[in-house]
């Protein structure tokens, strides 16, 4: 899988490692893969599963047997490379370890790019077409997904990263691979807010929404930080509440002691076994959620999600793609149409289910909130859905809008109704 690329050797070891290591690395990889698949290693666990870890002692033995290393540093480099090739990101692992890197991308020509604090950068490294395809197939298979002519695209979770791949001819040129990296440790909400313009005000508003169990949608473009922020918000949910997350590919990792993660599943080569997000939302409702979270609303599952928020499951949250907070109603209506909901029915559902929309953008200042809006519940306009801006970042100024009073009134009403035990507030909500 890495014939066209090999990890950079430590300083001074280039010539020693450059000659004769390719064949040795292949032998070491085959030996290590055979040991990991040895049924004797899994006799207490039934059939040998797909390995998700490589014991260091096995990696060290593979290097000792098959690779010409002379220093502990060289041995460590080769052990890391073997582990990356078997269960990690392979030739993308080294770029992924760069400081501030959030994404690693392979384009149709095989060029490896990174994105992060320094923006989009060409690493100067390239994967041959065959290696890129083999890598993509292996990564998705490792995450339990198939990638072939019958299913030429897909997502998978690999070593904490979300991997997306799409094969030609759907992708022009060669195989396209996109890797979204997770932070080593999920950031805390207050740590994120320190880097935001007017972070103190945004932090106070988010904690107010969390405390009053408002149903929150986080909108923004790809890469604007929606999932990162949602994980941080969920990390501040009280410890005695049960969070159930529903995602197409698992990305949410809140710092919380009771999180149940459900992940959708694609079908096999015959198309059987598919489990959609909408089905998982229905299953989650039977699992006693205190907080129901849909990682990303993108289709018909929005109908079940809105229905859940209308059945007393307060404190729900989710993300969706939108250009602005004011565009969220149109996005919800478009997704509702996929579930067979008419515009008026969707508006009635959403206006009573969603409390607030937080919109994020990626600017020169980083990824941060730019607008907080509340759903307008004007009874004189039944069957319509619109939002009112409560806080808006205009230039460098944070201004309050007409929705600020609605937000304050909603919060006051919720606090007034929250008179039971925390357990009852978790299961039942406003009007219980």
From TrEMBL:
Residues 169-361 form the Bacterial type II secretion system protein E domain. It comes from the Bacteria. InterPro entries: P-loop_NTPase, T2SS/T4SS_dom, T4SS_GSP_E_ATPase, TadA-like_ATPase. Residues 38-47 have a biased composition (Basic and acidic residues). Residues 1-54 are annotated as: Disordered. Pfam families: T2SSE. Belongs to the GSP E family. This is TadA family conjugal transfer-associated ATPase. It comes from Citricoccus parietis.
């Amino acid at each position: 899988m890495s014939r066209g690329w090999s990890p950079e050797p430590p300083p001074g070891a280039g010539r020693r490692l450059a000659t004769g290591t390719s064949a040795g690395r292949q032998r070491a990889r085959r030996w290590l893969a055979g040991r990991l698949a040895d049924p004797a290693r899994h006799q207490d666990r039934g059939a040998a599963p797909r390995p998700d870890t490589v014991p260091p002692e096995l990696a060290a033995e593979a290097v000792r047997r098959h690779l010409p290393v002379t220093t502990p540093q060289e041995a460590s480099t080769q052990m890391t490379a073997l582990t990356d090739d078997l269960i990690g990101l392979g030739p993308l692992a080294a770029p992924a370890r760069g400081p501030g890197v959030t994404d690693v991308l392979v384009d149709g020509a095989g060029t490896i790019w990174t994105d992060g604090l320094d923006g989009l950068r060409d690493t100067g490294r390239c994967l041959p077409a065959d290696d890129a395809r083999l890598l993509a197939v292996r990564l998705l298979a490792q995450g339990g997904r198939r990638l072939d002519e019958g299913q030429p695209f897909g997502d998978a979770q690999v070593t904490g990263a979300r991997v997306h791949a799409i094969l030609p001819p759907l992708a022009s040129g060669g195989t396209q691979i996109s890797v979204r990296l997770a932070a080593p440790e999920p950031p805390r909400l207050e740590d994120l807010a320190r880097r935001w313009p007017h972070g103190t005000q945004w932090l106070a508003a988010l904690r107010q929404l969390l405390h009053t169990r408002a149903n929150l949608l986080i909108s923004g473009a790809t890469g604007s930080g929606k999932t990162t922020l949602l994980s941080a918000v969920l990390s501040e949910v009280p410890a005695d509440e049960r969070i159930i997350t529903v995602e197409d590919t698992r990305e949410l990792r809140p710092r919380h002691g009771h999180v149940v993660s459900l992940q959708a599943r694609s079908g096999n080569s015959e198309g059987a076994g598919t489990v959609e997000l909408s089905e998982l939302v229905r299953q989650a409702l039977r699992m006693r959620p205190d907080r129901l979270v849909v990682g990303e609303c993108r289709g018909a599952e929005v109908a079940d999600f809105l229905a859940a928020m209308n059945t007393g499951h307060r404190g729900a949250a989710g993300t969706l793609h939108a250009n602005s907070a004011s565009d969220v109603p149109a996005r919800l209506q478009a997704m509702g149409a996929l579930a067979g909901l008419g515009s008026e029915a969707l508006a009635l559902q959403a206006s009573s289910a969603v409390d607030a929309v937080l919109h994020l953008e990626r600017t020169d200042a980083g990824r941060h909130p730019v607008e907080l809006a509340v759903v307008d519940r004007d009874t004189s306009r039944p069957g319509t859905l619109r939002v009112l801006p409560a806080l808006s970042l205009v230039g460098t100024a944070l201004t309050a809008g007409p929705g600020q009073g609605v937000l304050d009134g909603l919060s006051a009403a919720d606090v007034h109704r929250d008179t039971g035990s925390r357990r009852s507030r978790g299961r039942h909500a406003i009007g219980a």
